[in-house]
User: Fold this.
Amino acid sequence: MDDCKGWHPLDEEFLPPSATACRFFRKLCLYWRGIPVREVRTLALYTPSGDDVFAFVFAAVVVIVVVAGIIRGLAWNQVKALLARGWLTHQGTVEFGSVEERRTRYKNLYIARIDYSYSVNGEYYSGNLERLFFLESSADKFVAAMKGQMVFVRSNPTHPERSALLKQDQPGGWPA
Assistant:
């Protein structure tokens, strides 16, 4: 292919940086000189390098972690509520409550956690509920209002250690 250097007054150093243009002009040069040009077609339009594969895998892991965090932090109580609708209801008591601050990039979030106990067939079990709040004062009010309260707890009939507190089961719902 070096035969075609200098085929045009604009030598390769003056050609545009596009590799496609250079290939096209070289093939044209070879064609006019009567040299057979074999077309090589690749199946892939793009062959990723090691850096590209790492970036793709890293991006996929970040997306999975973010989605899992959203499900865990925001939607898990809704998923749990859907699963617990057919479970048995028992009386329980809120034993303990706490507020935890979670820092995100743009805003601090507050997780109110209440721990409760309940009994099924004479056996005592415990569980917890986590709620997300944007204000620390709201989370503190929720925990203070729930401590020592009687609550209705749903438990799985086959695994009574699995439980859920549902807003619709509590008289008057959650405290504001």
